[in-house]
Amino acid sequence: MYLTSGELAKRFKVSLRTIRYYDQIGLVRPSKVGEGGKRFYSGEDCLMLEKVILLKSLALPLEEIKLVMDKQSIESILLAHKSYLEEQAVNIQSSITHTVSLLNIHKLEGNIHWEDLLALTVKPEKNRSWNAFFTDEEQEVLQGRLPKLEEDTLSTQKWLNLVRRIQLCIQDNISPASEHAKLILEDMDILSEETFLGDQDLMDRFWEVRRSSQLSNELNLYPIKQEIIDFIEQAFAFIQET
Fold first, then answer.
1. Distance CA 161, CA 165 (A)
2. Residue 28 to residue 95: CA distance in whole angstroms
């Protein structure tokens, strides 16, 4: 069974111009040429075109494709294509992760700055490691349970909403001594219990790190604005006084 140039183009979702060009450069030629120059492609010709399409998906130029066509089996081409797709999948997942981070930053900040974009691709030089603050076991707990901007999880959204509530209090001049602030701290205690598994010492040491923008940067943690830290500490102070 033979396919015409138009049928071949339709089957493989390429343009008729592409089919004609491959014929012109000797990459994929028809097995038969009928009256008026009408071209007919066999099953082997179809397989040849499929190889070319796969090799092109690997970003190989046509000159190189012509060189490898007769030397590569369809299995080796498919394996190469599989590796390429796996690499693309990793890149796509990385892009999704960066996009989720930007969305969460936008929820917190209300806008996106260039330095936020750079922070997603350039890791800051660390003068200290997590080992200076936490044991291996504590790091495992923190890495597994801390909210991450790059993840769209329920835990992350809870913490983001908590920070946004504090930002709204600051924006609306609601006092850290208010009942609203007290409720925010109660919710923070509940989330902290979930995150730190009831380990008060670990929570206190982690909070000391988060209070410092310098230490947060060194440990590659998104820094908390000083006004938010001040609001939380003032609210705690009012609660302790009552």
1. 6
2. 36
Model confidence over 50-94: pLDDT tens digits?
888 888 887 778 887 887 776 666 677 777 778 878 888 887 887
Cα–Cα distance between 68 and 160 in angstroms, integer? 53
For the chain, the three-class secondary structure string (H helix, E strand, C coil) is: CCEEHHHHHHHHCCCHHHHHHHHHCCCCCCCEECHHHCEEECHHHHHHHHHHHHHHHCCCCHHHHHHHCCCCCHHHHHHHHHHHHHHHHHHHHHHHHHHHHHHHHHHHHCCCCHHHHHHHHCCCCCCCCHHHCCCHHHHHHHHHHCCCCCCCCHHHHHHHHHHHHHHHHHHCCCCCCCHHHHHHHHHHHHHHHHHHCCCHHHHHHHHHHHHCHHHHHHCCCCCCCHHHHHHHHHHHHHHHHC
Furthest-apart CA atoms within the chain: distance in Å: 99
Under 8 Å between Cβ of 154 and 194: no
Tokens linked to 222: 């998104």
The neighbour count for residue 175, using CB atoms within 10 Å, is 13
Asked if the model's pLDDT at residue 20 lies above 90, the reply is yes
What is the phi/psi pair of residue 14, to 5°?
Answer: -125, 165
Residue 174 CA to residue 231 CA, distance in Å, equals 10
Rounded-to-integer distance, Cα 198 and Cα 189, Å: 10
CA terminus-to-terminus distance, the chain: 89
User: Both tokens of residue 100?
Assistant: 């989720």
The Cα 217–Cα 240 span in angstroms is 30
Of 74, 135, 118, which Cα lies nearest the Cα of 217?
Answer: 118
pLDDT of the residue at 115:
57
